[in-house]
């Protein structure tokens, strides 16, 4: 496909979101990336939070963290370029130790993943010996290595139910844990951290779930007041919220699910208009793919880490084999067990 052909396709799909000069520049970048991808026998994975030009015209596979983890485990390519944040690229490396895994930006971190450390998990396991530990996939490899099982926002309740345990430690997302507790009918408590150690009042025990006070800096911005304001302006709107939003927000919404579940919901239902309470580029991606669907563009919450993944940096990652993801083998082997258990349950 020529640059002009790519430009025409991009203009048709993205002219509501980008200016004509921007589209011309991005079309050239897309052409170079796709050419180099073939030459280097690479596969590009694109998370649902990528900006529209990258999301629709570069990845071989698009999806949420669970879908991309599955596909990463199946690839036969030499190089995996993960257009997503670092913990996602680490998961690809955990599943593909012999592949070169690249993350286009070395600054693509995650506020939620950085809210907990492997030492924090070890301290919790000392405080609650024998209690199974579930970690949200939005964690770094050394944390995954310390837990029994991983989960995603889409399968968290299923994973918790599968354990059939009286008590479960669920890390690190506070809101996701509360939403799972509500869905599964469990009582949840959150330990205070004193001098680096978890402390819980005996009056709080026994409890079904022990959580952690980590939050996504994007999803915690959405409020019930936001929902009330939108419904006042558009009384026929269908509001979808990510499970990393607070339980009050998910309860006030019409539907709550993972990014892929929200996309499927919009695709498979008919409503006058939709509003997604999640990273705002995803709404643009759905609107570009489904111009017949009216998406309210009232969201201004862009993840600063996902936003660091650009077409320019994706091209440079391929050119220079830049920002190679490494996971120490002892950590990788232990983390692999928790990730594989998640994939088996899913």
Short description:
With 346 residues, this protein is α/β, with parallel strands linked by helices.
Descriptive report:
With 346 residues, this protein is α/β, with parallel strands linked by helices. It has three domains: 3-108 and 306-320, NadA-like (Rossmann fold, 3-Layer(aba) Sandwich); 113-216, NadA-like (Rossmann fold, 3-Layer(aba) Sandwich); 219-289, NadA-like (Rossmann fold, 3-Layer(aba) Sandwich). Helix content is 44%, strand content 14%. It contains 15 helices and 14 strands. It has helices spanning 3-14, 20-39, 52-57, 65-74, 86-95, 118-127, 141-144, 156-163, 174-184, 224-233, 247-252, 259-268, 281-289, 311-320, 329-345, and strands at 42-47, 61-63, 79-83, 100-102, 133-136, 149-151, 168-171, 188-189, 192-194, 197-199, 209-210, 237-241, 255-256, 273-277. The strands form four sheets. Strands 6-5-7-11-8 form a five-stranded parallel beta sheet, with helices on both faces. Strands 2-1-3-4 form a four-stranded parallel beta sheet, sandwiched between helices. Helix 1 (3-14) packs across helix 2 (20-39). The longest helix is centred in the N-terminal third of the chain and has 20 residues, at 20-39. The relative contact order is 0.15. The mean pLDDT is 93.
